[in-house]
Amino acid sequence: MLRKTALIAIVVVLSLAIALPVIAGGGPPPRDEDGNRVRVVVYVTSQGLYYDSIVGPALPQRGPFQQLFPPGTNPDWPDGETLSTEFGPGTPGHKGGRWWVDANGNGEMDEGDAFFSCPLLGPGREEP
Description:
The structure is a single chain. The chain has 128 residues and is an alpha/beta fold. It has one domain. It is 14% helix and 24% strand. The protein contains one helix and seven strands, in the order H-E-E-E-E-E-E-E. It has a four-stranded mixed β-sheet with strand order 4-1-2-7. The chain is globular. The N terminus is likely disordered.
């Protein structure tokens, strides 16, 4: 189940990165094959907690964003099988669910990356 969730999260993030140029001004939130909003789990490294989330629409590259790491790519959570980030609700640095993913792999927030909404839904929990 956890691997399936991680795989779905990777597919969602990559799909957003590919679709970003087309829907840069926004667009409908992604949906699964049954028409339901895509749900993911995000691990917050500074809190040690997991949060449910619903993937929202792509956003234009304006305003503050927080980095979201695909499974296994966060240096603070290298063995993780879920999406991860440093800051969560109530932590300074949390941007309220405005995320960027380094889709072009250059370590910089710039053109070619994915920008989208994906609010963390509390309360956080210790298990995925």
